Amino acid sequence: MSGERKGRxxxxxxxxxxxxxxxxxxxxxxxxxxxxxxxxxxRKSRPARRRRGLVGWILAPFAFALRxxxxxxxxxxxxxxxxxxxxxxxxxxTLPSIDALVDGRARGSVxxxxxxxxxxxxxxxxxxxxxxxxxVSPHLRNAVVATEDRRFxxxxxxDPQGVAGAMRINLAEGRGPLEGNGGSTITQQTAKLLCLxxxxxxxxxxxxxxxxADCRRTTLWRKVQEAVYAMAMEVRxxxxxxxxxxxxxxxxxxxxxxxxxxxQRYFGKSAAEVSPAEAAMLAGLLKAPSSYxxxxxxxxxxxRAAVVVGLMEAQGYLSESAAAEALAAPAQLSARAQQDSxxxxxxxxxxxxPEFFTRDTTEDVIIRTTLDQRIQAAAEDALIxxxxxxxxxxxxxxAAIVVMSADGAVRAMVGGRNIAATGAFNRATQxxxxxxxxxxxxxxxxxxxxxxxxxxxxxxxxxxxxIPGSGPWSPDNYDREFHGTVTLVEALEQSRNIPAVRLAxxxxxxxxxxxxxMFGISNDLRANPAMALGANESTLVxxxxxxxxxxxxGSSVTPYGLVELRLQGDPEPLMGLGGGIGERVISERAxxxxxxxxxxxxxEGTGRRAxxxxxxxxGKTGTTSAARDAWFxxxxxxxxxxxxxxxxxxxxxxxxxxxxxxxxxxRETMARVLASQMPVPLPMDRPAAPSNTMAxxxxxxxxxxxxxxxxAPVAPAPPAQGQPAQPAPDxxxxxxxxxxxxxxxxxxxxxxxxxxxxxxxxxxG
Length: 765
Hints:
The chain has 765 residues and is of the alpha+beta class. Among the domains are: 126-339, Biosynthetic peptidoglycan transglycosylase-like (Penicillin binding protein transpeptidase fold); 403-675, DD-peptidase/beta-lactamase superfamily (Beta-lactamase, 3-Layer(aba) Sandwich), CATH 3.40.710. It comes from Wenxinia saemankumensis.
């Protein structure tokens, strides 16, 4: 034993590695009975889990959520991808060839030509014809891609990067993520232009505007539909075909649909010929066509084009020198595009033409009109000049001008002070206003046609008329004075009211109504004494047309603007003149004498401010009660012009009568119209002698004998109610003067006639 202990020099190394407690645990484990091991079928042994620390317990919920999201996302994504694929396949199967998509207009267009065949106005939506990416200018194609979708040739119809950038910009600017910048690709914009393949149906939509507004509506679901439709287009068409559809369907302001129509509208050239500066301006319109249209604001359009030029340079479509050149010489409107006048006239032609070829046309229509752009510019310049120089700043007073030829062909029309307006209220054709003294020439026309003479006399004395149902009425003159006995020409040139009333009653109120209506004044004329002073209402174009009947020798005219209407591409017109000279209203003699009387109005009377040196002119002023309307209508030997002035709300004019500003506007207009024109004499006759001197009798002695034997001529019986008087004809003139019941001086007695003749023969005074 002692030998064994001696042979063991110390504890083994293994013994030293364990503590006593560890050894005790080992001994206890050896003594404990062992449990039989369970058989584990098919299970691999797991490594022992590590205990979670504090951070592990904090991150555990997030890790679980991520696992759940991933498990759900890939399954949902798979389902969505399947549905998107099905949607793309369906839309792709329904898309037609691009030829059926380039012209998507629901209605046609109207192009208007002036009397010389030059285009001056467009209505509806213009489509200049199909263009392709191969036929347009490369600058235009590049400008569109640069400004609208720089990754157009790389994405599959949807650009997630562009959408994310647009949403970030919208949120940064305080808008909703889908408000403002949309991040849409050219393909998505084309899908919107196609309204996702849903055509316009008049039975479904109240108007085309409502349909287009719905197509432009932006919602989350609509954006999803656009994306699916855009991807279907990428499947069905090539990139060049998609861009071709876009170039033809995009709206570019001023009624231009497609870049070909826009290039023609703004620059007077094809889209194949535009320069880099012009291409940049056209591409810049895509952001906001109405706001950036150069016909609306050229400077704004040029500023937007400069931005597009910068994008083209940055993306390598323009060299530095080419970009500098485009910025130094920005695009300019063509001369034709700058002439934004004639809008009121064009609107009137559209309103008076056949609806199915104008307002609701589905065809492209060409209308040749009567407009003279030189005269139109003269009228517009005159109106602007007078209001700038003679009307107080800030005044809301309005004015209108119509110029026409003697046959009723309207050469110019201004319907208000905003001369560039289209679709606005037209005061020349739509405003019914009291005519005032401008109606008086038709009273005199009736009297002259019945045989009276401009040198016959009428009483300018106080008058009271008992009007049934209204009681006594006492007309007054503008100056509240009475001039006693005056000639007809004096009464007209001084615009005396009481003589006009007396003359209307002498000629017969129904006769006056008949003459006025036949000349074209047809709105609610009533046969009462106040009619002689212009108590009725009429439009400026109607009144100007009635005066044209006086100038042309006494025949009615229907004012017209349409000369010829045809479909684009058809050589034969579908319809011709929309008006012209009609039936005779008064005799030529009466018309020529009335022209002379109206010439005296301008030469000596209330219309003196309308005089133009070197030209014979005639006309008539008109001012209504309380000065709510002021008129001047007159003519030269070739043109008739009418001017109205007043407030839209019937506020009285301050210090304005027809002999004032309206006459000034008329003179400024006609001075420009007649400038450099050879004077044309007025078709007028000065009467040789008044009818009460027995003018035209071949034998004064025989006349006297007949009077002594048979008495003075007897006036015809008054006409039945509603029928015009028919006076007995004179052997010489075919006319006979009616007994004016005291309103006119009756012929002298036979003794006076004989004494007058003897005095002439003997040289007596």
